[in-house]
Each structure stands twice: as C-alpha cells, then as structure tokens.
Design goal:
CATH architecture: 3-Layer(aba) Sandwich
CATH class: Alpha Beta
Number of domains: 1
Bound molecules: adenosine-5'-diphosphate
CATH superfamily: P-loop containing nucleotide triphosphate hydrolases
Helix content: 25-40%
Order of helices and strands: HEHEHEEEEHEHEHHEEEHEHHHH
Strand order of the largest sheet: 5-6-2-7-1-8-9-12
Shape: globular
Strand content: 15-25%
C-alpha cells in the first residue's frame, strides 16, 4: 500500500505542474547544472512560476547555484518545503528542491544503491511541496542510465521535454550522444542542444575565439535532426555567479553571457 500512496502523492504533485523540462547531458562537467539554473532563472524572469529539482545524485549543485549551501529541509503535513530563491523583478520565487538538503553534512558523499535511486526520484518529485508551477526544470544525472529511465517512466503521460547540455567538442562525437537516441526512442520531444563553453572573449582585447573546433557541429546535429538552441561562452563571471549563488541571467541580465541563454528560454 506504500507504493499506492506514493503514486497518488506523485500524481497530485504532477497535476499542478505545467511543463517539465529535463536537462540532460551525456557526461558530467559540461555545464548541465549551470544551464538548468539559468534556464530556470530566465523562465522566472518572464513571470512564470518555476521549480528546480536537482536530480543529479552524484553532484548536486543546485543548492550552491542558488545560494542555499548547508540548508536543510523542513517537513510538515504538506511535505518537504523547497527553498525559495527571491530576486528583485521576480513575480514568484524560484523553488529549489535538492537531495543536498537531506544530507547530513555538505561533504557527505552519496553512495546510493539503485533501489534508493529509484526511491529518490520518487521523493524528489513527490515529497517536495512544489505547489502550482508553470515549469519544473529537472537537473538530471549525467548519462542515460537507470535514473533517466526511472524518471521518464514516472513522468509518463505528463508534458515532458528534454534539453541536452553539451560542449562543442562533444557534439562532434555523435555516437556519444546517447541522450538524443533515448529521446527518439521514448518519443520525448528534444527541444535542442545548448552548447556550453562555445567560445571565449579575451578580457584584454575583447576578441572572441573558440577553444574547440566547430567544423562538424552543424552537420553532426543536422544528421540527427536536432537543433542548436544556444551557445554559451566560457566565462569567469558565469562561474563566479554560480559559485556565489546568483544565476547570471538574474544577476547581470544585460551581460553577453545572460543574453546567450535567451534562445533556450524561448524554446521552452
Ligand atoms: P555539470 O552539471 O554538467 O556537471 P556544472 O554546471 O556543475 O556542470 O559546471 C561544472 C563547473 O564548470 C562549475 O564549477 C561551473 O561553474 C563551471 N562552468 C560551467 N559552465 C561554464 C561556463 N560557460 N563558463 C565558466 N564556467 C563554467
């Protein structure tokens, strides 16, 4: 009966959520969490009610990227309380739910058995009291493993679309884009690719250059029928904004870095 109750709770949460955006990546470290937080910030800036669910079990970064390091969750009769990120100009706070809020301390490593991972996906969506949301952005674990399959199963029948975070050199290796195949096989709409670390602006001369070759990019994406939505530069202010707990999209909305996210926000 526990399973039945969990399922009911999950469905009651999902019934209040409009669009779910899964931010996926083939591997860690490509900027998936950075893209998730700024995407959520961009949607919130446009007046939407937005939640961010940090499902990256192995590297939960959303608590840091929204300035909630060390915070813990409260449990009341409505469930776990997500942390609310407020900023001037936002109609609604961004609600953040993360496994990091349930850890004993910030440096406790997380080693979950698969059964627990499944449970966690349930908890993340079902136990947090998200309330009504226009968008729930889910920062997925990297790869196309159990977590992704579990979550896709849990969300079956709801409005779910995926966004793939990647770097230019990764896109060139099309056979590594398992996430594209996953979406195609599941019939899950893939909004497109967000290319991270796609260029650098020289702080001295202002000139732009590319760290990674971009030659095959368009052709490779074209081959699998996926569009490149946005190109995010490699930028120290982007990293320092995240580390300081302020997504750059809200902190410096006129910056080139912030504006680079706009087409991805549009696509949602
Ligand atoms: P992932 O979620 O894919 O593991 P993160 O978003 O956590 O990746 O990014 C990994 C690290 O790289 C973080 O410290 C982040 O601040 C930094 N980073 C990500 N994208 C950029 C960028 N475009 N410019 C500078 N630093 C970045």
């Amino acid at each position: 009966e526990k399973g039945h109750h969990e399922k009911q709770l999950l469905e009651s949460r999902l019934a209040q959520i409009g669009q779910i955006i899964m931010v996926m990546a083939n591997k860690g470290g490509v900027g998936k969490s950075t893209i998730s937080s700024n995407l959520a910030a961009g949607l919130a800036e446009r007046g939407y009610r937005v939640g961010v669910a940090d499902a990256d079990i192995h590297g939960p970064n959303q608590s840091r990227f929204f300035g909630f390091v060390g915070e813990r969750v409260r449990l009341d009769e409505r469930g776990l309380g997500p942390r609310a990120f407020t900023a001037t100009g936002l109609d609604y706070p961004i609600l953040v739910g993360s496994l990091a809020f349930m850890m004993e301390s910030d440096d406790t490593p997380i080693v979950w058995r698969d059964a627990y991972k499944h449970d966690f996906m349930h908890h993340l969506i079902g136990s947090f009291d998200w309330g009504p949301l226009d968008f729930l952005v889910i920062d997925m674990p990297p790869g196309t493993g159990n977590e992704l399959i579990t979550l896709a199963d849990l969300l079956e029948g709801h409005d779910v679309a995926a966004l793939l975070a990647t770097t230019p050199q990764e896109v060139a290796l099309m056979d590594s884009l398992k996430a594209v195949r996953f979406c195609q096989e599941r019939g899950m709409p893939l909004l497109g690719v967000v290319e991270n670390m796609a260029g650098v602006t020289c702080p001295h001369c202002g000139g732009e250059f590319h760290l990674f070759p971009r030659d095959h990019l368009a052709a490779a994406l074209n081959e699998v029928g996926v569009s490149s939505l946005a190109q995010i530069p490699l930028s120290p202010t982007l990293a320092s904004g995240s580390d300081a707990g302020r997504p750059i999209v809200l902190d410096a909305p006129q910056s080139a870095e912030a504006r680079a996210f706009a087409p991805a926000v549009d696509a949602c």
